[in-house]
Amino acid sequence: MEQKLYFRQRLEAEGKRVLFLLDKIFKGTNSTDRHTGAMILVKQLRREGNLEFISTHDLELGEMGKGKDSKIKNYHFSEYYRHSKIYFDYKLKAGVSPTRNAMYLMKLAGIKIEASNNVK
């Protein structure tokens, strides 16, 4: 609760630009509320001229950075696989990550992934 109050105070700091570092916004909420809340928050932060760095796995949130006039820029790290392990290069690259790693991580966890397992 203390973090939420601090965050609110920072948002209400009129005339001051703030740097926000946010990791997985609204983690622990359902996916619809998390996505909607994140979209609203990002738009509000942008309106107020703040600088924010946000880590997310929400691909739709990355769509906000599309368009030549967008002030939102997307960056990602690349991953590679060696000896049944995943590694990240930690070099910032422009754009939303073109790769997905959840299926690989599930296989490493022993979950059988088959073509017939397509869940929709």
Automatic annotation (TrEMBL):
GO terms for biological process: mismatch repair. Coiled coil: none annotated. It holds the Pfam family MutS_V. Keywords: ATP-binding, DNA-binding, Nucleotide-binding. InterPro entries: DNA_mismatch_repair_MutS_C, P-loop_NTPase. One of its GO terms (molecular function) is ATP binding. Residues 11-111 form the DNA mismatch repair proteins mutS family domain. This is DNA mismatch repair proteins mutS family domain-containing protein. It comes from Clostridium tetanomorphum. The lineage of its organism: Bacteria, Bacillati, Bacillota, Clostridia, Eubacteriales.
